[in-house]
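$ run holo --ligand "magnesium ion" --emit tokens
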Amino acid sequence: MTETAEPTVTPEPAGTAAEGHAADPAATFTELYGKTPDGIWAAPGRVNLIGEYTDFNDGFVMPLALPHTAVAAVSRRDDGVLRLYSTDVPGGVVSLRTDELTPHSGHGWAAYPAGVLWALRTAGHPVTGADIALTSTVPTGAGLSSSAALEVVTALALNDLFDLGLTPAELAVIGRRAENDFVGVPSGIMDQMASACCTEGHALHLDTRDLSLRHVPFDLAAQGLTLLVVDTRVKHALGDGAYAERRAGCEEGARLLGIPMLRDLPYEDLPAGLATLADAGAAESILRYVRHVVSDNHRVEQVIALLDAGEVRAAGPVLNEGHRSLRDDLRVSCPELDLVVTAANEAGALGARMTGGGFGGSAIVLVEAGAADAVADAVTKAFAAAGHAAPGIFTAVPSAGARRLR
Ligand code: ADP
Ligand code: MG
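-- output --
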């Protein structure tokens, strides 16, 4: 908790994804398995620019891929054996049999890649085993989707090695199935779609109802802007139950409104919808959840219009409004995330908001490039003054989605 005079903006990993890694997954693979891998694949983490808690309401989201990636060295096997290793966790190689994979059966971190193989086999794809060595620069549990990066890199490698011919969106769906049904973590489709489908220099406008998407140019550097990611490095235990409670509340709201999903309530009809809910005797919390989802869906459309018009700076207040909605209506923020937003804005940021599931994790800050260091410094000082551990701060450069490296 010491203050530092050093600049707090750490650079993103340079060059190709593999170069940004401390560990070389190909060398690790050869050391472990005594052969060279068939190939190397990478899949990124993501931050969501706007549209939070909308993806389980069939709504819009707008993530961008980070330069941080999970990288996997993989070889195909045809004998029903799956071997998994991560340079980032202790415990050595996990060895499993593909025909014995059962949902919710533990395996810790290895359940994510094993779940992908299970999901592929369950969908009828003849995946007969693999040797996998993984390493990742995506911070874990920071709301930057290290889990989706792991799933998508595994799915892409198996897709190539077994000639499955699946599209990036289909691989994302497999990854989500692994996370929801095999690991047992409920989540929407945004994270996997972002990791599988994003392109460099763009944010991804995704309609989570039908997975239709558009790559929206988001060249921050050309506009003289910087998007900071502030990892609060806290994770409040509250998060798990709260997600399920918000999700159930949104479903109840849609049911009372007589619509399939909250996505189906147009923003213009929000006041009338809230009145209907009040008349129906809905809990006060349901009115707040509905107001958040419908207004955040609208904010995605606002931000897209601003980006398309080249008015990126004007997105700042929309980010602030999104944070206010997550804090006061959905109530998924926490003191550390609120502090990032307050301190950044006081130091001259254009706008800021929590990103991801909340209760800790990360916030994003849109700032003039020339003011990025000062704003990062102000946030770090505010954390120290409040007695919080120093946050991790880096620049989000809109990066490529999952790909084969060699
Ligand atoms: P997030 O996706 O926001 O980072 P999650 O809780 O969804 O957080 O996923 C984090 C989990 O994913 C970790 O606890 C671990 O099980 C797994 N994971 C992520 N990255 C790695 C890695 N490099 N090696 C092994 N497991 C990882
Ligand atoms: Mg995750």
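-- notes --
Residues 1-19 have pLDDT under 50 and may be disordered.
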